[in-house]
Design the sequence.
């Protein structure tokens, strides 16, 4: 078990370019989450997957953002036509299927992908 | 809707002194509460959690937090801090209803230990 892996760790891009982040969750975890953390703020929920199904999306996830999780394993988060306001740390987390109440989430987070849009 | 307030953005503390990091939450239903810690250049790590039962929960490295329903608080305490405790601490809440997958975080408290 190597934990949740995210790639790349850092990405610098010019405004208007597209970027893609990858997340590899812990192998036996069927739930995968994306959060965004801007400077001085706590992480904010973006979306989550149960296996390959994307079950919830935040209003923060504009139409320039798309997330996928083909085959229910790794996930990608793509941002099209990046804007300076997209500069943030993008965090991925995962957790196993639990028989307990859903909200008792104990998420394992990756180290994050830091995006800087110039 | 669930929300969390961490009133202190930065807390400087002398080494071996006690510390309290404050966390207040808002929700109209029962909640689960968490403290996560983020060391420099690392991801968030779970420090401790309250799901049910005893209102006092402890971590393996000496931190403790007490769930106070009447004051809607979940303050984090440690009787004697070490240099290695320097990090950012996030309080988080999740409403306890089936199907809720959302964890709402506070804005974080940066704990700085002064030698």
Sequence:
């Amino acid at each position: 078990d190597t934990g949740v892996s995210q790639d790349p760790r850092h990405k610098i891009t010019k405004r208007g370019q597209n970027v893609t982040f990858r997340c590899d969750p812990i192998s036996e975890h069927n739930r995968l989450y994306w959060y965004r953390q801007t400077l001085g703020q706590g992480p904010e929920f973006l979306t989550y997957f149960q296996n390959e199904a994307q079950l919830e999306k935040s209003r923060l996830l504009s139409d320039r953002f798309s997330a996928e999780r083909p085959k229910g394993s790794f996930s990608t988060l793509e941002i099209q036509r990046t804007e300076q306001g997209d500069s943030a740390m993008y965090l991925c987390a995962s957790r196993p299927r639990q028989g307990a109440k859903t909200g008792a989430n104990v998420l394992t987070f990756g180290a994050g992908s830091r995006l800087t849009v110039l | 809707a669930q929300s969390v307030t961490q009133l202190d953005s930065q807390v400087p503390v002398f080494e071996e002194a006690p510390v309290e990091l404050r966390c207040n939450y808002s929700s109209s239903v029962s909640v689960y509460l968490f403290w996560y810690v983020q060391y420099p250049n690392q991801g968030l790590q779970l420090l401790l959690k309250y799901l049910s039962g005893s209102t006092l929960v402890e971590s393996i490295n000496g931190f403790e937090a007490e769930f106070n329903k009447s004051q809607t608080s979940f303050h984090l305490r440690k009787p004697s801090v070490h240099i290695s405790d320097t990090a950012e601490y996030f309080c988080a809440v999740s409403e306890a209803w089936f199907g809720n997958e959302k964890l709402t975080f506070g804005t974080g408290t940066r704990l700085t230990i002064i030698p």
Q: What stands out?
A: Chain A touches chain B at residues 4, 31, 33, 40-45, 48, 55-56, 91, 93, 101-112 (CB under 8 Å). The first strand of chain A starts at residue 5 and ends at 7. Chain A has a mean pLDDT of 90.
